[in-house]
């Protein structure tokens, strides 16, 4: 089995086997770029090691052979006392896991070869001893678990003895002394001398890199980023090159375009006479890469040439790390670089212009999550505002408000119309009301899957979690950060995208992308690279996608907005929202009606109101289909709460007031009280129990459609029955509805479809029967998830999902993204069996999943005709439906 690949043997497609770093080093090697020679030990070797606790058979021999050929190529031997070859041992997994795993530099140095290194470096003793002490420090810490502080402490002591704070003031003798001190520390903690055998150093370092795959922080990171736990890391053994050999040496990082805005140009930092770790550690200040032109024009020109070459080759923004050793440029790493959401769109557009990629590829390179980010308002930041802390951007958006520390206070102030930011160490289910009331949530603990993060995302509320520089003191109602105290009542601003926290109120800027979708920015006539790129890619997505995109809307205003955002109809109009406000009294009369006459009067009063609602919506959606769902929630939701009412009645009776009306209401509320209303009298069940209710709604829909048609418009109503579990339910409703429709529609030319939600598991499993009575299905994946998993959709997110996420039981809430294996299977079965029974059956989805990027891909795969989502997510669904095709 081949476990070791020379750089010349790999390529960029082999990330799974060679890790990202190894695959790209191989790619650059084969492009003829100056990469220090080396080889990669595969992720398979790591997997075998982790499974058995020892190196797989044959690995040692293969390493030996590759090391020998490396030595031949370099004309040096590992550990040679005269002219030693030194190597770095670097981790590199398929997915980048920054700083999570280990690296050991300068492997091959020992008491003899340190002298040789010095001679090689032109008698630079200081450099050689500094390299040696770095090896012992890194090796001790990484490979042998020697506490890092002990080395730090010894280094501090050496500097103290010298009367300096700067490492660079230590000379060769000081560093030789430090090597002795380090060796003692090593001996004390490991019970053995620092290994002098270079091959032993190498083997132990490789093993340590393997093991670092399972380091606690790496495991946590993978869970957060949803990286599979069994991939393992590759190990790169690379010839050392030194950027700290004098002023003609140095090291730097660069991007081939601006990763923040996508603008073309040279973006990078350079540090002369330094090694990579110095740049990361921020020991000295870097200079802009452009200054390298003055320092070393030849290397600068070569670097620019290589960057252009890499872009052309990878056809994308690349980020690189390089080192210059005495005027010779070496490429240490490259990869397709991370970028902001805005840069992703801008760069994709530019690359199309440059002819490097086509529009399909551009569409592939951006995603709905990025587009969603661009649709949030942003802070308008100038130099005046500096963040005081940085946590995790847990739920995007920009929020400013008054600081409060308790849920109760949040509710109180919000009721007075104030914007509040709820600040907690971490939140728990008791904070739910406060979280609902707050404009944003800030916690000092917890990651992306903490309670605060999960719940805030579910609510679409801005949240920064785990801002650990913040010291929260709830009893004292204040927090401290960066030496400042923030009291309840002070104003802070939080950015849920970047995780940054600001004191005071930062002005908020509306999103240009939303302005474009709203139609107030014309992409052809403004100089805005982002808007132009979004326009171009969205247009392409629309041309490509097979899925139609509708919206969930139940007011004319929402419908109009969604239409501007590109909605091609309404997939769900929830009529229950039309029974609130001052119409509640009519509903109350309907519910309390004892005699048929009373009920009919109440229904007759509701009819014109409903008709007007639908007329408005049909007008806004002129020419497009509108799915109107008959009333769904339990009727008692329209009545006052039981306890409250009971108390009121008791108090009034006590006072001897006339409470006949209230008593009747109380009796009705008692009668209708359900222990489990979500599984009780709602949806179609209600329609079958309350005579005339559905009939009134059907009549209102049909009359509104006819009135639209008479006015010259085109209404395309689709009446949808909720919560159906058996075809008989639907048949009963259908028979009544058809009569009314026939009577109302007459010869107006209006066509009304009748269909059903598929949101009860039994409906999905008997879809073949149900399709006999339905002209369309719309999957209610909210209820289907609720009933499929047995998770109460109103309770579980705040109660225990954080724990499920932490344990990895699922990577994302199944209410947020469709559970393909379980709930998704129900959708698949119903789609197949429904279409088999009725070819041409229209299929849609109107649960929250309709606007979730990953779910949109699933619904495309299953072959639905459309997804329907909230107006704001319509562009995201359009984009993802296009991406599902390319
Ligand atoms: C659903 O259950 O997915 C659905 C769209 O209906 P509601 O959310 O109104 O229950
Ligand atoms: Mg439902």
Q: Strand order, biggest sheet?
A: 14-24-23-16-17-18-19-15
Number of helices: 35
**Ligand kinds:** phosphoenolpyruvate, magnesium ion
What are the segments in which pLDDT stays under 50 over at least 5 consecutive residues? none
- The CATH superfamily of the largest domain appears as Phosphoenolpyruvate-binding domains
Active site: 451 (tele-phosphohistidine intermediate), 846 (proton donor)
EC number: 2.7.9.1
Domain Pyruvate phosphate dikinase AMP/ATP-binding: 16-53, 61-285, 290-342
GO molecular function, one term: metal ion binding
Describe the structure.
With 886 residues, this protein is of the alpha/beta class. The chain folds into 4 domains: 192 residues, ATP-grasp fold, A domain (Dna Ligase, domain 1, 2-Layer Sandwich), CATH 3.30.1490.20; 87 residues, ATP-grasp fold, B domain (D-amino Acid Aminotransferase, Chain A, domain 1); 134 residues, Phosphohistidine domain (Glucose Oxidase, domain 1, 3-Layer(bba) Sandwich), CATH 3.50.30.10; 300 residues, Phosphoenolpyruvate-binding domains (TIM Barrel, Alpha-Beta Barrel). The chain contains 35 helices and 33 strands. An 8-stranded mixed sheet has the order 14-24-23-16-17-18-19-15. An 8-stranded parallel beta barrel has the order 26-27-28-29-30-31-32-33, surrounded by 6 helices. Strands 1-2-7-5-6 form a 5-stranded antiparallel sheet. The longest helix is centred in the C-terminal third of the chain and has 25 residues. It starts with a strand and ends with a helix. The mean pLDDT is 93. It catalyses: pyruvate + phosphate + ATP = phosphoenolpyruvate + AMP + diphosphate + H(+). Pfam families: PEP-utilizers, PEP-utilizers_C, PPDK_N. Its EC number is 2.7.9.1.
